[in-house]
Amino acid sequence: xxxxxxxxxxxxxxxxxxxxxxxxxxxxxxxxxxxxxxxxxxxxxxxxxxxxxxxxxxxxxxxxxxxxxxxxxxxxxxxxxxxxxxxxxxxxxxxxxxxxxxxxxxxxxx
Amino acid sequence: xxxxxxxxxxxxxxxxxxxxxxxxxxxxxxxxxxxxxxxxxxxxxxxxxxxxxxxxxxxxxxxxxxxxxxxxxxxxxxxxxxxxxxxxxxxxxxxxxxxxxxxxxxxxxxxxxx
Lengths: 110, 114
Known about the structure:
Chain A is 0% helix and 53% strand. Chain A is mainly β.
């Protein structure tokens, strides 16, 4: 099993603040994905990054894949209460199921 | 309209009972999965099927038996339920065995064994 460590585990911030969530591994991945999970629902795919050093933006969310394809970060600018949820990173290697990190639980208060 | 649907949403049962969870996807995907999410929100792969063929069978007690009658359906049957089986079980699908296109998850089945 290829371990993915996420940090921080919990994050509670005020609306309007910026934050960064990290996903680290000692393994190289073909791609890395970020999901958001809300209570009572399944994870929903936010983004897939494939190339080392790749940066993708999704409105106020910026995702980066490390040069060595072992780590990734998610940066949220001006967080809003609607960003509240569990953020999961998942590493993919050909032919096997996604391997998930333990998640970062984010709470954004007005 | 729902892409991946699981039933039931909630399942409360006594120890020793046998229960099944059903999953259906209408996305035309070839590959389906069962994941278990524990109380600490960790998602762990249990099984994967590609076009009705079992391709991943993680270290799961043999009380758990998946069945895929066709590529749009993947069911999970659990015999002799134990307290430790309490968790949320998620079904997911992807276009191919390569997960690089991402997974589509169902909304989960919360199993509580009492």
